[in-house]
Design a protein that fits this description.
- By secondary structure, the protein is of the alpha+beta class.
- The protein has 15 helices and 13 strands.
Amino acid sequence: MYALVDGNNFYVSCERVFRPSLNGCPVVVLSNNDGCAIARSNEAKALGIAMGAPWFKIKHMAESDGLVALSANFALYGDLSDRMMSLAAGLGPRQEIYSIDESFIDLTGVRGDLVERSHKIRARILQWVGIPCGIGIGSTKTLAKLANHIAKTAERKPGSYPAHLAQVCDLAALSQSELKAVLAATAVNEVWGVGRQISKQLMEGGVNTVLDLMRLDPAMVKRRWSVVLERTVRELHGLPCIDLESMPKPKQEIACTRSFGHAITELHEVAEAITEFASRASQKLRKQRGLAGQVVCFIRTSPFRTDPQYSQSITVPLRRPTADTTLIVASALAGLRAIYRPGFKLAQGGVMLLDIRPDSIQQSELALEQASDDSVGRTRLMTALDGLNLRFGRGAVTIASAGLDGDRRAWSMKQERRTPAYTTRLEDMAVARA
């Protein structure tokens, strides 16, 4: 048995923890540079605001409907996510943190009433962290994900499913008639792993609900679509095909890309951004104990502007696989100098690390080269760099070419509506007054 614990409208819920006045109001959280809606409260969804809706198209609702828009505060969301996940882990012996707001729990060996236990964990998360969540339980991860959707929908839309399935839904506890009715009432595109194109093809073939999908022959599904969809069908029948991953798999590629807060034209401004991106990518690489063999640098103008267009990238091979920020930054800047052209209003840039391998696999030195302690010293330097930034906050120690003006740099993201870092910055900590 598996459970999926999922925070409701997570980014919005995080904002409401410290601003209870937002409860009951339509709220959206905006993406980088306040571009589009990446989280919506139930009230915002009721206004017809779609996921990814551009802010400039919905900002009139601030006047007409009382819509509140906030810039993304990822430091706050990450911290509250850690707190929520630590409490969710009490549901069972093993946990897979699937995303910032979702966590699979292995319920193997857990005795007693699983629904009652889930309600207690949900209440604890709500009381201790302030995040409302839904919990779905099933004999496979796909069924647990589906049960979670049912639990959250039954709470948000009373009457769509039986009332006792709200907040916590255990599909295994339903009678055959109840289960059949619930599956027949759930659209096929709500199944985990059924994407937009496949769901369109299924609906064109008369497969409109989860129950319809379960009635298909898995072998035929494999022939017509893919082995992935075949596994999904088997999981819906209660046959586990997707294992719980207690530790995330190392990434084969690591990217750090951003849209600039303002269009920039000067090389030194672009170099600051590329340095920052390469530094962040290097830190992620060290976190998974990897080494990169290639660095990709790219820059581009905005395709939505009428200005002259330019887009270019370059791959710079590293002499030896490394996770050293200084070496990766130097390679990224060398690539930038090769592709930069003056006169263009650049809107986005990024760095990608490729050819990643575990740091336990080191390429031996050539016989003609002299071995030295330099690599050991640089490894210690990177460890110290990560330690200082972990203790004093990201960006406490940076490469000089990243600039020293912090959020005042020309390329820094626009976050005009960001709330304070209530839990990660001492000066922003909320104060309770008598």
